[in-house]
Amino acid sequence: IHNQSSQEESLLSAAPPQQVTLENSGLWKSFHSIGTEMIITKHGRRMFPHCNVSITGLQPFANYVVMMDMVPVESFKYKVSEQLLVAGKAEPQPPCRTFMHPDSPATGSHWMKQSLSFLKVKLTNNTLDQHGHIILHSMHRYYPRFHVVQADSPYIVRWSHFQTFTFPETAFTAVTAYQNPKITKLKIDHNPFAKGFREGGTHSHSKRLPSSSQTEEAKTDLASDSQRSPKTGHYSTWAPEQEPPESLHAENLEMQEYDYSCEEQMVPVSVSYQPYRSELR
DNA sequence: TCTACTTACACCTTTGAATAGG
DNA sequence: ACCTATTCAAAGGTGTAAGTAG
User: Fold this and answer.
1) What does the entry give for GO biological process (predicted)?
2) DSSP secondary-structure letter at A6?
């Protein structure tokens, strides 16, 4: 753990260090090794793989809010020509929205009891979206970022005791249609909703997909994933402009007050901010 | 002509209400 | 009255092909 200041050192020494672990790390790595792509649509598309994390080191009786947002990996966009190529400067950032885990706020013991699923997160390319989905630019790369905030209410968050965690293997390219057939194959193989497109299925399109040697490799990765090979975050620094290091990233953010009742707010990485709470079915 | 995006579609899983049984 | 299990229809999540936009 690399602490930024003596003030943070005293803060951390008062409580056990928070740790966020990516539970389905093996599946993410299968996609990452090929180049993860996430479909974004006008009406919002779920992520696959979706983020599934566990948290430790919280104070059992304190309340916390857990959030997720998306951060650009670098400051340029891509185009397709055989493979993804850099195609100039990135588009201006759309409104940065945050997905608040529906259990928020909840006690530390609640969060640590079981892993947290971000299955309901939806991505859109519609900058006028009214459903609170996370807005991204197509042909840009992003990675999800997780925030753990000690707070009694999702609307008034003290940004002290605020920690952020990211996982390099969760970086992805936002696309409106799949560019890499290997990614398509992996998704069809492992997303139950895409079962109709699997080889041997009754769907007419199923035989159009090229077979890939990558699939067996991916299955091996998944086997290890099923044995739970989660990866735990620790404190280090890497700039989004750089290729992420193997290690995970967690940053202590500046202490400040934040009122979620506002429509658009700034987060400590100088992007505008919209609170979003998913609907429970 | 090329690339990026949108839409309709068939196929599938998930959800939740209704019902039955203990 | 209460709980659990089962059934089943509706809602919603998929990638694809074909079309549109620029």
Assistant:
1) cell fate specification; heart morphogenesis; pattern specification process; positive regulation of DNA-templated transcription
2) H
* Chain B positions with any atom < 7 A from a protein CB: 3-7, 10-16
- Backbone φ and ψ for A245, nearest 5 degrees, come out as -75, 170
Separation of alpha carbons A171 and A143, rounded Å: 4
Nearest nucleotide to A79 by CA–C1' distance?
B3
pLDDT in tens, A127-181: 988 888 999 999 999 999 999 999 887 777 666 678 899 999 999 999 999 999 9
Token pair listed for A142: 């992003």
pTM: 0.75
Alpha-carbon distance A221 to A224, whole Å? 5
- β partners of residue A157: A258
Helix (H, G, I), strand (E, B) or coil at A103: coil
User: How many helices, marked H, and strands, marked E, lie in chain A?
Assistant: 5, 21
How many CA atoms does the CB half-sphere of A266 hold within 13 Å?
Answer: 7
| Cα(A33)–Cα(A28) distance, integer angstroms | 9
